Amino acid sequence: xxxxxxxxxxxxxxxxxxxxxxxxxxxxxxxxxxxxxxxxxxxxxxxxxxxxxxxxxxxxxxxxxxxxxxxxxxxxxxxxxxxxxxxxxxxxxxxxxxxxxxxxxxxxxxxxxxxxxxxxxxxxxxxxxxxxxxxxxxxxxxxxxxxxxxxxxxxxxxxxxxxxxxxxxxxxxxxxxxxxxxxxxxxxxxxxxxxxxxxxxxxxxxxxxxxxxxxxxxxxxxxxxxxxxxxxxxxxxxxxxxxxxxxxxxxxxxxxxxxxxxxxxxxxx
Length: 269
Fold this sequence. Notes:
The chain is mostly helical and 269 residues long. It is 53% helix and 4% strand.
């Protein structure tokens, strides 16, 4: 808001009145922001602030009309999520030498991220009682406290069993406890930051110019499923998305990959 009022003061001088500000004033301000090469996202935020401010003034009967009400929000280009290839994922996981309990834990974390597509905080919040060893599934509490069941198959289950065995916790008597699945060095529930560091460290030399974070593994999970013929609705349920439109972003990734392969492979492309 300070930037906007500085602009208005320069335009109207020291005798600036709130009544002097109209739609054209705001349009001039937006033009100034655009000339400074601000992103559409930043400009949209500033317009939203102006709308709220002038709405308040209307409510308080300080002005009659909100001059920002009809100002359009610039379109924000959706960027496609970054993903790793299947080969990069396999390399990042398989290169971990399971010589210590921490190594085994880290490998189990990566396996579970990729095999299930769960969010970072969902993984951190997993308890032993959430693992169904018979059905080979995990129970996840997602956004909005919505519960979902996700298959983890033999690969995910094997990684979990190995980690629990390495830490002396693979005991059927423990499987009904509300005890953290993944623990840090202190024996308490592993932290979000620790898991982030695990992913960054284990993929540091795998993907050039790309800082790998847990959500990239989630993106990769969804993309690889769709590339191999999974239907959009199933992927939506696995990811725990509220709307199908959120999941549809991954169809654009597979389309882009298809174009790339076509261009490289077709003799007349």
